[in-house]
Amino acid sequence: MKRLLAAGLLGAVLFLSACSDDKPEASRPSPDQYSRSGCILLAQRLKENDHGWILNGSVATRAARSTDPAINAAGKELVLAVQEAGDLDVGSKGKADMTQAEARVTEAQQKLKTACRDLLGEEPWS
User: Fold this and answer.
1) Spatial distance between the Cα atoms of 9 and 79, rounded to a whole number of angstroms
2) What is the pLDDT of residue 125?
3) Total domains in the fold of the chain
4) Is residue 113 part of a domain?
5) Euclidean distance between CA atoms 123 and 51, whole angstroms
6) In a domain, 90, yes or no
7) CA distance 63 to 74
8) Which N-terminal residues, if any, form the signal peptide (predicted)?
């Protein structure tokens, strides 16, 4: 009799929990090495307030190799911004006004930072 009652209660609990509107929070996907290293390098560049093209190239190329779609897309955008800034700087032999090019790098960095937060949570990332 006690077993039947326990089985009935267990069945009722399982049934009610299955009918609940509460969905368990989805776990974050596990980041690959390129996502993690790109985000860590980005945090270092932002800490140094570096919006130039030279050191952000390594951030961009790592992020662009990520399997995470958002990190990958933001990394590719940063690659383009860094390439454009580098072409402008080298093409002018260092005499060009880099304000707009660095603003584009900054914008791409912010998009990558958002993607990193979505994947890894709040900083610090390690």
Assistant:
1) 59
2) 82
3) 1
4) yes
5) 19
6) yes
7) 7
8) 1-20
